[in-house]
Amino acid sequence: MRIDRVGRLCGDIEKSCADIGRLIQVMEVCGTHTVALFRLGIRSLLPKNLKLLSGPGCPVCVTEQAYIDTVIELACRDDCIIATYGDMLRVPGRETSLEKLARANIRIVLSADDAVKLAQQHPGKTIVFVAVGFETTTPATAVAIQQAAEFELENFAVLCGHKRVLPAMETLLSGRNDKIDAFLCPGHVSVIIGSDAYRPLAERFKRPCVVAGFEAEQILEGLAEICSQIEKNAPSVGSVYSLAVSPQGNKIAQSLIEKFFEPCDGPWRGLGNIPQGCLKLKSQYGRFDAARRFGLTMEDCPEPAGCLCGQVLCGLLDPAGCPLFGKKCAPDHPVGPCMVSTEGACAAWYKYGPER
Amino acid sequence: MNHDKILLAHGGGGSLMADLIAKTILPGVSGKSADKLTDAASVNFAGGDLLMTTDSFVVKPLFFPGGDIGKLAVCGTVNDLAVCGAKPVAMSLSLIIEEGFEFEKLERILKSIGQAAQGANVPIITGDTKVVETGAADGIFINTAAVGEKLEKANLSFDNIKPGDVLIITGTLGDHGMTVLSGQKGLSFRSEMQSDCACLFGIASALVEHLGGAVKFMRDPTRGGLAATANEIAQATGLSIRLDESAIPVKPAVLAAAEMLGMDILNIANEGKILAVVSADVAGEAIEILKADPLGKDSAVIGTVLQVGKSAIVEIRTKIGGSRIVGMPYGRDLPRIC
Amino acid sequence: MCLAVPATIVELDGDKAVADAMGNRWNIRTTLVPDAKVGDIVLVHAGFAITTIDRRQAVETWELFEQIEQFRRQEERANEN
């Protein structure tokens, strides 16, 4: 059954692409899509003139090195416990990573809630929650801060590295890469922000923005919808993930984000400054800000020499086109941001790609 | 890459560990090449082929559904001999115990060591016990070593593997690794999963006794999982391997747990499974023999050895009919949210 | 960028819930979906339910749920016999 549906969708896509007759470049914004596209073997089933660009949607990859260095600095303090998602452990700072630091005060958590529990269990230590992620993950951090405020937990703090996806997509189309024909929009970010959130982008730039889930059929359906919009020259917002994504999104989650955070300009690793692309804690919750509590400032640090991740993240270059790829830069010794996380474009190409 | 300190990932069964063995351990002790390392080594001894292997066990938690560190310590070592076609004849047992470790736990562990050894019909003939200060070990560490006698009909070697041979797995993947992970501190979720920890001499010898040289090679896909074992075979033989995702047996609970933690089932450890490479013409017979044993009831043909293309690779035909590469895992898989 | 898995709520106390995916049970919070009830299927990301999902559609969409349904039907048939 399943394989029939897949075959049918692939057929639709192939037909559209043949009719369009030119190179179509679709950016999958989300790192989970990047991995799913490879893991499910979808890339191997698509027509040659449909090119998938892996976008900047891996929060770990676009976390600036200075942020990692700050986490490492805090991890070296005996009065702190670092609570982090497993994703951040292997990400290199300038000199080391949390994994290599191998200190007992670094704890992997599966949820922001677990970080609050650590704060309750260890009243003598400050628990620093490594708060990274896009709109899907930010509400959990908001709830954690709300809890900490409610329980008057003086020893809970977050190092805010949360980012906003839409401003990055807007920046990409505003002069970074006008060759992107359409976006395959992130399914789970869209659960929170809603599919209508892409409307201004789709209208202003006249590009299809289609939200899809992560199963093979959903991804193919999303690509088929994109191709059909391009074929009909009718770019708009679409969603093939309506079972999880509503036009308005999760209002409660949105209001929690707004309650505790405010948008600000800030750096995305590999992309540089993204206007309104980051979040910071609102000043009335500044007491939970780990950077403020420990008087830390994060300084910009330049990308390593020769690294072309900036171009990869913009969809201007395939990972294999970077001279460092697979040689000086590989998952066990990443140079640039796209190689540091399993979801990074370069790491996915390295792990699954035939182009190696 | 150069490391100045040992990482947990160096013990993960992936490329980092392969590097540690090839570039640090082997040059340090023997100068032997790492090209074709097997799970047990043969010793030229007057009168016959003797095989020897050793393994240390540091599992956390010590007790898990389906087994404990004691059962694992016996089975792991028995299995390393079994997949090399040897019948275990004697085993040593070495305990490193942390000060303050409860006698009750020690007794439970020893009881299951006894049961497992009896089940595998291997006497424990020598041993050692050390106690270290609190903090110098984590509860208890166990080392076992064993010698085995090569089965007459066994002719197992990377060198026997030829294009056209098929890969058989003797049951579902990932049960041990996901079960142990579910019990680890901080990650704990409750589950119906059970470790597959078991002694495999029975099914390994059944296969060899019935099919002789048609069984080319066997390995138990422990740390690093099927992905590591398949890549080791590709590297050692210079041949490519194609796996068929829809043929690979996985329990739904194990698959769900892996998805929940963002892990790849192909990289997860097994402690009661064999990956066997056999001639295609005996594949059906091999599956029948394996399925006759409860430990092999979910056995399946999951892949084929191919003539090498551009370079020796492991690829997988996905459930939806696409294909992709299966890479050598790096270190240990970490739970992730993105 | 964000892994999320579908799971069924099997226990609920305020916004603290236990979610089940094929027999794996873990603690989650329903703070973001306060209307969720026991028996609902939710999508869980980093320990938080982020939306509730229609059961019929879930079965059509996720292979895993398809398997659960198959398993359930098999059990039912076994019980009937």
Please give a structural write-up.
The complex is a heterotrimer of chains A (356), B (338) and C (81). Chain A is built from 14 helices and eleven strands. By secondary structure, chain A is of the alpha/beta class. In chain A, helix 6 packs across helix 11 (251-260). Chain B has 338 residues and is an alpha+beta fold. Chain B has helices at residues 15-29, 69-82, 103-119, 175-182, 201-211, 225-237, 252-261, 283-291, and strands spanning 41-45, 48-57, 63-64, 67-68, 86-98, 124-132, 140-150, 166-169, 215-219, 240-244, 275-278, 300-306, 314-317, 323-325. Chain B has a seven-stranded mixed beta sheet. In chain B, helix 3 links the parallel strand 5 (86-98) and strand 6. The relative contact order of chain B is 0.18. Chain C has 81 residues and is an alpha+beta fold. Chain C is built from two helices and five strands. Chain C has helices spanning 55-61, 63-80; strands spanning 5-13, 16-21, 24-29, 41-45, 48-53. Chain C has a five-stranded antiparallel beta sheet with strand order 3-2-1-4-5. In chain C, helix 1 packs across helix 2 (63-80). Chain C is globular and about 40 Å long. Chains A and B meet through helix 1, helix 2 and helix 14 of A and strand 14 of B.
Strand order of the largest sheet of chain C: 3-2-1-4-5
Number of strands of chain B: 14
Poorly predicted sequence stretches spanning 5 or more consecutive residues of chain C: none
CA(first)-CA(last) distance of chain C: 46 Å
Summing up helix and strand content along with how strands pair, one would put the structural category of chain C as alpha+beta
Share of β-strand residues of chain B:
15-25%
What share of the residues of chain B lie within helices? Answer: 25-40%
